[in-house]
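Reminder to self: keep the SMILES exactly as supplied, no canonicalising. Ligand is LQXTBERG.
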Amino acid sequence: MSVAVLIVAAGKGLRAGGELPKQYQLLGGEPVLRRTLRAFEEHAEVDRIQVVIGEGADELYARSATGITKALPPVPGGAERQVSVRLGLQALASSEPEIVLIHDAARPFVSAATISRCVAEARKNGAALAALPLSDTLKREGAKGLAEETVPRAGLWRAQTPQAFRFELIRELHERFADRDDMTDDASLAEAAGHGVALVEDETTNLKITRPEDFALAEKLLGAPMETRTGSGFDVHAFEEGDHVTLCGVMVPHTHKLKGHSDADVGMHALTDAIYGALCEGDIGQHFPPSDEQWRGAPSDVFLRHAADLVKKRCGRIVHCDVTIICEAPKVGPHRETMRGVLAEIMGTDLSRVSVKATTTEALGFTGRREGIAAQAIATIKLPSHG
Ligand SMILES: Nc1ccn([C@@H]2O[C@H](COP(=O)(O)OP(=O)(O)OP(=O)(O)O)[C@@H](O)[C@H]2O)c(=O)n1
Ligand SMILES: C[C@](O)(CO)[C@H](O)COP(=O)(O)O
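Structure tokens returned for the bound complex:
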């Protein structure tokens, strides 16, 4: 299930000014492109990176790509972004990736969470884009440069990158629409072909360096102090008659099921509460009251996704989490890796940051008497520090 990244870096960066195209200018002492490349180099799901570069930029590129092991030899781009994307896709075609993420070199702050969520949505839906819902009131400029109309903003999003697609889909679309010059992003091609594109809510920090002032903003973001927060969660559910339990999103056959208002996924509940704890945002019961009928039998990924989204909305990230499931049976070991994968996907976090463990209580206490299952979790997050 290979995932390739196509980074378009063949623009001239005219609006940004400077002696070099913006992707080669320094940001925090490093070329912008190097930071962008590193975001994908460090992402476990990405296995190769194709960069499209401008004429005469080989040396600048080589300096930016030193030590980037996933990078394929760069290929030349075209006069428009769309042409550069098409040429990059042609270069990737022989290696037949399943999914391709198309990303602007000028967006160095793309997060691992956004990358993971775009890949997951593209696998499900064929096409996905990182985007932000509008938060400002929109005005249409009329004659004499005066605001003349307020445009309703409901349902409007700002498109960002990465934009992720099943490779064959986007490759065919870029060939089909090669003579169109009105497409400013790749999702537009899918839309024009009648293929809906999943919206993946992105972070405001994933800005595109476009104008000179964006460099100052980007430098500020780099210097923004982050603080580390830790939260803990604990949950217990009793057994009742049944034939399976749901633990960390995985259905595990068992002699009983767990009793609860939702699907009683004790591991996922503990983890959700750990994240709420790190955010000082209460607990599951506060966000999803058991008295509310709409959560009866609800799959617990709804809760975990909500907690992870709160981290993202505050421009934070989940650094690490560790869930311990406490029971005599069923055995967790055979399902541990699947559980890690499920949790990582829901949180939009790299697999290497998610741990699931299990223990017994040596036949002591209520778990020892096989009356139910307990789980505890710790989550560590980074949040921008507001002093
Ligand atoms: N012919 C082009 C034009 C753009 N891009 C890339 O597309 C991304 C988004 O484009 P934009 O921000 O508009 O970059 P530039 O075209 O370089 O900027 P400008 O329009 O100010 O010259 C950038 O990473 C840019 O390098 C590209 O690969 N090929
Ligand atoms: C692809 C893009 O970054 C999505 O916002 C954007 O459309 C690029 O636009 P530009 O005109 O090439 O800056």
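Points to follow up:
The first strand starts at residue 3 and ends at 9.
The chain has twelve helices and 18 strands.
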